[in-house]
Write a structure and sequence with these properties.
about 240 residues, mainly alpha, three-stranded antiparallel sheet, two-stranded parallel sheet, globular
Length: about 240
């Protein structure tokens, strides 16, 4: 595997997930280190393994090893799903919900004074609190809606700290540590990091994984899990 992901490789992974193409997904995942796309691609790998696609069991094993080593929030829940897909554990007793983890993370990590929202349990669609939906008479129906609190920026700030700790560039790490002190930390951090394109891309991958994992863990606490994608049956050939 190459060191880090380039934009073409990430587009290939996302494109395969969007196209529900298991064979293409497994091929794309060979283009970079799986530890950087575990939450992004883990559900797709679980489906591929459950369907018995060639090399899917091997990829699931790579994902499980990387999840154990990394240990982000939400990684344990994804590992349980992968073990179930490969027949090594029971299927987690969680209700599947067709929710976009990226959208859910945006609700969870918004400003508590302005954000939060609801998930439509019939569709998995996320509705920010400031939209006109749902209709007022339906908004409090617990059979239809799952309330999503806005938890603020503390987790995002911790993401910056952990990213800095993992940087191999001592000079850049020192500049970033200074940038995150006091008010305006997020803006200053991004201003400094934007001068290094490679580190900027790496930071966004890191944050995406952390945010998806937190959203997955929150869903599990509420008794749900993301619904697995459907891979076309033609993938088996």
């Amino acid at each position: 595997m190459v060191e880090g992901w380039d934009e073409d490789g990430l587009r290939a992974v996302r494109g395969a997930l969007h196209a529900q193409d298991g064979v293409a997904l497994l091929a794309a995942l060979r283009r970079g280190p799986v530890r950087e796309v575990l939450q992004l691609a883990g559900d797709g790998v679980a489906v591929a393994a459950a369907q018995g696609l060639p090399e899917a069991a091997e990829m699931a094993g790579l994902f499980l090893g990387a999840l154990r080593e990394r240990g982000f929030r939400g990684d344990a829940e994804l590992a349980d799903r992968l073990r179930a897909a490969t027949g090594d554990a029971a299927i987690p007793f969680l209700r599947p919900l067709a929710v976009d983890l990226e959208m859910l993370a945006m609700l969870l990590e918004g400003d508590p004074a302005e954000s939060g929202g609801r998930i439509d349990l019939s569709t998995g669609e996320c509705w920010p609190a400031f939209t006109d939906e749902p209709e007022p008479e339906e908004a409090d129906d617990p059979e239809r809606w799952l309330y999503v609190p806005a938890l603020g920026s503390r987790a995002g700030y911790r993401d910056m700290e952990l990213f800095i700790d993992g940087l191999g560039d001592v000079v850049l790490a020192d500049r970033l540590r200074k940038a995150i002190g006091g008010r305006g930390a997020f803006r200053r951090f991004k201003d400094v990091l934007a001068r290094d394109e490679r580190s900027w891309r790496r930071y966004h991958r890191f944050c995406d994984e952390r945010q998806r994992g937190r959203a997955r863990a929150w869903l599990a606490e509420e008794g749900y899990c993301p619904r697995l994608p459907v891979l076309r049956q033609t993938m088996r050939t």
